[in-house]
Amino acid sequence: MNIGELIEQGKYEDALKELKGEDEDTKLLRGFLLYRLGKYDDAIKEVSNVDRLESYYIKFECYKGLGKKEDAIKSLEEGINKYSLSHVLYYILAQYYFEEGDLDKALDYIDKSLSILPISYDYKFLKAKILFSKEDYENALVYLNDVISMNPKNIEARIMKAMCYYNVGLKMDALSEINKALDLEKNNVTLHFLKGKIYFETGFYKLALAEFKIALRLSPSADMYYHVALSYYMLGLHRDANMFIDKAISLEEKGRYYALKARVMKELGDLAKAKELASKAINLDSETKKELEDLL
Q: Which residues contact 263 (CB under 8 A, 6 or more apart)?
């Protein structure tokens, strides 16, 4: 079995034993295998004298694995100083800062990557994610459109695009994008939930209920039970609403759950219970007080 086959099968220790020589290619491969084995210090030592772009990446990953974030960043910055047109190193730094939540630095580095290689699918997608996280939805849409045109089956990009439309108030555009995504992945809970929210907010409560029930079936949670209950309530089906809000409360106690339960009990004719629940809702979440004034 050759080295390539050993690596492909994840047999890194065996592959290391087969590696002979001290040329740069061999050192880089040894360093990479040591990194994959979690032997970070050994990997750093192996590639420390190799002045190749790949060595800076290996050192970056190893320092990250050791929890030495400053050394990890320094390694990439050294690589960038040596290889100023290396869009890959800029991209890796952008990805790192994005994961760390430093969106401004992430945006700065991904812009540098794109200035060198503006047609990159991965770079455009990362920029879209960064802009989305910065709540710059309109500019995120520009990059998401490019990403989707390059890969129409990218579900994550389509979900983000739908959420961008939703967040800028273009709910029908969001709905159209959701339907396209559901053609590719019909059991995506995020898509069904967002579709339900759009239907609910536009007054189509029966359609909202259907979508929330699909989402509930796919991923049962207190919040899903709550949205099903809320849809039943808006349809005037108070006993059904009561059953589902009880399930939500049994899983998690939130002020808005008790607020809905209070409303349901009022509609079912138990005003004393409704007032008791309203008081509990406000104790859990003072924001519910405004909507429960008539029950205080």
A: 233, 274
Domain 1-84 has CATH 1.25.40.10: yes
pLDDT of residue 1: 60
Q: Which of 50-59, 67-76, 144-153 has the highest mean pLDDT?
A: 144-153
Question: pLDDT per residue over 175-223, tens digit each?
Answer: 999 999 999 999 999 999 999 999 999 999 999 999 999 999 999 999 9
| Chain centroid to CA 214 | 21
User: Is residue 34 over pLDDT 70?
Assistant: yes
Tokens 């952008």 label which residue? 94
- What are the structural domain ranges in the chain? 1-84, 85-186
Residue 85 main-chain phi, psi, to 5 deg: -100, 15
Longest dimension (CA), the chain: 85
Domains 1-84 and 85-186 belong to one CATH topology: yes
Amino acid at 165: Y
Structure tokens at 177: 């994008």
Q: Does the domain formed by 85-186 have CATH 3.40.50.800?
A: no
> Would you say 188 and 155 are in contact if contact means Cβ atoms under 8 Å apart?
yes
User: What is the Cα–Cα distance from 126 to 133, expressed in whole angstroms?
Assistant: 11
pTM score, two decimals? 0.84
Torsion 17-23-27-28 (CA) sign = negative
